């Protein structure tokens, strides 16, 4: 259960190792018979169906182990990325995202995603470098003087988007968007709490860093507004 990468990588190797044979030996036979079947894609689809069976059997066994469950999700997302980008798998075919979208599994995914995101936020805001810009010494890069915590937070949101963007239904994507909105609100509350501690020094370093963080986040969210 703790090594899903073993069978996921094995399937990718099988697809890669058989592609040339299927293209050169099997595809001409199908073409000659007037079939519209793509040999490599059908081979890939058959192997993916085995993975779906394996996932359906494994997931109930690790649903409440956060570490194992997160590892499985991470490995499945990496597998899907390579399956589509390297092997040309079709989005209309069955995929692992359908398994991850099933109710019990999906709700667990949302829960652990939120848990680890909040832990990451705790870490970034308690860091000594939280209010310092990474690029403070490079003027042309750092016009907005973005503190490290704000940049790390937006990267966190971007990574979450990247993880859920290939979900098969809009309703599931919207649930992840709801999680991101919760995280933005949580970050806003945390910034407000820090700001209240700094009101006596409103021209102080940290107070200005908070304003820069808010400006940066608002600007990036406005840029993302065009992303359906």
Automatic annotation (TrEMBL):
InterPro entries (UniProt xref): RINT1_Tip20
Source superkingdom: Eukaryota
Q: Name one GO cellular component term.
A: Dsl1/NZR complex
One BP annotation, GO:
retrograde vesicle-mediated transport, Golgi to endoplasmic reticulum
Write down what this protein is called.
Answer: RINT1 protein
Name the species this protein comes from: Nycticryphes semicollaris
């Amino acid at each position: 259960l703790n090594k899903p990468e073993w069978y996921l990588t094995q399937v990718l190797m099988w697809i890669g190792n058989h592609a040339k044979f299927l293209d050169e030996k099997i595809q001409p036979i199908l073409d000659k018979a007037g079939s519209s079947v793509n040999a490599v894609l059908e081979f890939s689809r058959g192997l993916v169906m085995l993975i779906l069976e394996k996932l359906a059997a494994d997931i109930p066994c690790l649903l409440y182990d956060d570490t194992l469950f997160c590892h499985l999700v991470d490995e499945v997302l990496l597998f899907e990325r390579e399956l589509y980008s390297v092997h040309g798998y079709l989005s209309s075919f069955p995929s692992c995202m359908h398994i991850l979208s099933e109710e019990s599994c999906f709700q667990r995914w949302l829960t652990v995603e939120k848990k680890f995101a909040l832990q990451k936020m705790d870490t970034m805001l308690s860091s000594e470098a939280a209010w310092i810009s990474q690029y403070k010494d490079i003027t042309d890069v750092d016009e907005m003087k973005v503190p490290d915590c704000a940049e790390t937070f937006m990267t966190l949101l971007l990574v979450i988007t990247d993880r859920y963007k290939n979900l098969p239904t809009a309703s599931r994507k919207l649930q992840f968007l709801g999680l991101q909105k919760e995280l933005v609100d949580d970050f806003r509350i945390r910034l407000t709490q820090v700001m209240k501690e700094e009101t006596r020094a409103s021209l102080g370093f940290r107070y200005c860093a908070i304003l820069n963080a808010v400006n940066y986040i608002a600007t990036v969210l406005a840029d993302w507004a065009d992303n359906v």
